[in-house]
Amino acid sequence: MSTSGLVIDKKDGKMSIRIEQDQTACEACAARVFCSKSSCEDANMILADRPDIHIGDHVQIEESKNILIKTSLVAYGIPLLFFVTGALLGQFLPETRIPSELLQFACGCIGLLIGGFLGRWIALRISKRIENYIGIKVNK
User: Fold this and answer.
1) Within this chain, do residues 45 and 81 fall inside the same structural domain, yes or no?
2) Would you say residue 32 has pLDDT above 70?
3) Could you tell me the residue range of the domain that residue 7 belongs to?
4) Max avg pLDDT among 2-6, 99-103, 133-137
5) Closest by alpha carbon to 115, among 69, 72, 68, 83?
6) What is the DSSP string of 72-115?
7) Both 54 and 71 in a single domain?
């Protein structure tokens, strides 16, 4: 998947690229509610500076190594796996006056929280090395 962008700033070893994308994709995105952008026009990407790219250059940005699939698995797969595991392990709890289904659900929710924190930690580690997954070409 590739998109185009415009280099708008370079400082402190980083370059800021304004993404020039189709606004309908941003407006239809299900995660837009959680997005840190105030509007779809605020799509910027900050990457490590490269000497062959200058302010005002139009660039083609392309994801590689299936980073979109990997991050989706981290964001959704790990919490789901922990929820299911917690719910299954909840059936081995000793009998109490609380219904066993409710205990299984509570164990699943605890697993979901643990999986969410683990997924967030992994996603933050990936985001610190995002340059390994993004290719940039200058449009001539």
Assistant:
1) no
2) no
3) 1-63
4) 99-103
5) 83
6) HIIIIIHHHHHHHHHHHHGGGSPP-SS-HHHHHHHHHHHHHHHH
7) no
